[in-house]
Design brief:
The structure holds two protein chains of two kinds. Chain A is mainly alpha-helical. Chain A has nine helices and no strands. Chain A has helices at about 5-30, 40-50, 55-75, 85-125, 125-130, 135-175, 180-190, 195-220, 225-255. In chain A, helix 3 packs antiparallel against helix 4, helix 4 (about 85-125) runs parallel beside helix 8 (about 195-220) and helix 8 packs antiparallel against helix 9 (about 225-255). The mean pLDDT of chain A is about 95. Chain B is an alpha/beta fold. Chain B has a six-stranded mixed sheet with strand order 6-7-8-3-9-10, with helices on both faces. In chain B, strands 2-1-4-5 form a four-stranded antiparallel sheet, with helices on one face. The longest helix of chain B has 18 residues, at about 170-185. The model of chain B has no long low-confidence stretch (mean pLDDT about 90). The chains are: A mainly alpha, B alpha/beta.
Chain lengths: ~260, ~250
């Protein structure tokens, strides 16, 4: 195969994958509104995706908030603008770092777990078993996970933003000598409702992407342990790339 | 009851089924035998509607397996998967009563558990097993629980995919007798995919020999030893030499 043929082959494969993911997404969206609704499954997934992700989200954002504060203080000091630290930390966390970091952490923790679980179910014929028991795997497995992602990730983003700002606040007041009341006042005064809304919208979209990719690659996994491994790897890679690309597009929309 | 007319299936350029035909009467038990890679599992998945055949007709109790309303079709069947395919996150009783706890026919948890225990007794397991998870079961118990799940909806047709694979000869014998008993008592039509000749003799009334996507022989189980068919003779005697090449 010459290089041009290889390029054509790769391009066709990518286009084919995009088409399949698009059709899968449409199918999931349609099934969200169709009966039966598996509320118990939805509640279980809200716990798995939302509640049990709190520790990793909290740790990630508190350290990032602290580091961000140090970086902004260091950079601001070069042109005597140290006073803007609370405002920049707040806007940086809420508009950008909070949703992106939470999205990426959810992709690492949840997307991989969903892909591995569903791929293993496929390999062990549990997806076929569901069908023969008159249960649609998309409705029973995929819809509750995607809905749970769309519902819980914005909440995680909100919590992550708060913890990130708190991390910055602790570093600023304990090591950089900021006054604690004026730091908090600056943060609250500077943030606008549109900043918070854009952050939560991003969280919801990233939650949908992360869970959808886990489900897509799980349902379409290959055979055996290698198939499960590849599904897990591809799901996280694709979710990460889509989250970053979508973040760019959404930032443009909310700019 | 079950009718297959000229069923074809290919994957890319590989032809797996090349015109499969047979008709199975109500209450009859058919074993489909053949070597590995001869299309047995693909044929089963086509009958179940899990894979779409390229052409041909498959009917179960007058319902075509390609229909859109899958539930009507699946409510009539039970399936025992090769590895059990029990849901890891659910207990044994939740696995058995899975179908009855969801959808339009939903029953209470208490009634579902009672039904599951009743089915467990039918397959020779006691009520204590009901609260275990699949990971806590032995191979034989796993097959029995899968069998209990397959009969949970009182199906008209049951499919068995390699029911004795991975079991010791004694447990395989137990499962064979259990399947025969259930098929006779429930009066269901059964199709078993297997390459276990001992199992075939116990479970089935008739046998279809599948090779290279077509049925090479179809006859009564009692006649299998005097079939005169070179494919069947080679297969049941386990001879390396013959029309079936091992590549």
């Amino acid at each position: 195969m010459n290089p041009l043929q290889s390029l054509g082959h790769i391009t066709l494969n990518i286009l084919s994958d995009i088409g399949k993911i698009f059709l899968f997404t449409i199918s999931v969206i349609l099934n969200i509104f169709r009966t039966p609704f598996y509320l118990k499954e939805l509640f279980t997934q809200i716990l798995n995706i939302g509640y049990f992700s709190l520790p990793v989200v909290g740790l990630t954002t508190i350290f990032t908030g602290g580091a961000l504060t140090l970086q902004i203080y260091s950079g601001g000091a070069r042109f005597n603008a140290e006073a803007v630290v609370p405002q920049i930390v707040a806007i940086g966390m809420v508009r950008e770092l909070g949703p992106v970091l939470v999205g990426l952490m959810i992709a690492a923790r949840v997307t991989s777990s969903i892909a591995a679980e569903i791929a293993t179910m496929k390999v062990t014929e549990q997806l076929d078993a569901l069908k023969t028991l008159s249960t649609d795997p998309i409705k029973y497995l995929v819809v509750p996970r995607v809905l749970a992602g769309i519902i819980t990730v914005p909440i995680l983003v909100g919590i992550g933003n708060t913890i990130g700002i708190l991390g910055g606040y602790l570093v600023a007041t304990k090591t950089l000598g900021f006054n604690w009341t004026s730091y908090l006042q600056s943060t609250v005064d500077f943030l606008e409702m549109s900043d918070i809304i854009s952050s939560l919208v991003k969280g919801s979209v990233f939650g949908g992407i992360a869970t959808l990719m886990g489900c897509y690659f799980g349902v379409n996994s290959g055979r055996g342990a290698r198939g499960v491994g590849n599904a897990t790897k591809s799901s996280v890679e694709t979710a990460d790339i889509l989250i970053l690309a979508t973040n760019f597009l959404l930032t443009g929309v909310f700019f | 009851m079950i009718e297959l007319v000229d069923v074809h299936k290919s994957f890319s350029n590989t032809k797996v089924l090349s015109g499969v035909n047979f008709k199975l009467s109500k209450g009859e038990s058919l074993a489909i035998i053949g070597g590995s890679g001869t299309g047995k599992s693909v044929l089963l998945k086509c009958i179940l509607g899990l894979i779409k055949q390229d052409s041909g007709l498959i009917k179960i109790e007058g319902i075509e397996s390609k229909i859109q309303d899958r539930n009507t079709f699946y409510n009539k069947i039970g399936m025992l998967f090769q590895g059990g395919a029990l849901f890891d996150s659910l207990t044994v009783w939740e696995n058995i009563s899975f179908r009855l706890m969801r959808g339009k026919t939903k029953i209470t948890n208490i009634a579902a558990k009672e039904m599951a225990i009743d089915k467990l007794r039918m397959v020779g397991l006691n009520a204590k097993v009901a609260n275990l998870h699949p990971s806590e079961l032995s191979g034989g118990m796993l097959k029995r629980v899968s069998l209990a799940r397959a009969i949970s909806g009182d199906p008209k047709v049951i499919f068995f995919d390699e029911p004795t694979t991975g079991l010791d000869p004694i447990m395989a014998g137990v499962i064979n007798q259990l399947i025969r008993k259930i098929v006779d008592e429930m009066g269901v039509t059964a199709i078993t995919i297997t390459h276990d000749i001992t199992s075939t003799r116990v479970i089935s009334d008739s046998v279809a020999m599948l090779h290279e996507g077509t049925i090479k022989w179809l006859g009564k189980t009692s006649e299998i030893d005097k079939s005169g068919n070179p494919f069947v003779e080679q297969f049941i005697n386990g001879r390396p030499e013959g029309p079936i090449s091992q590549t």
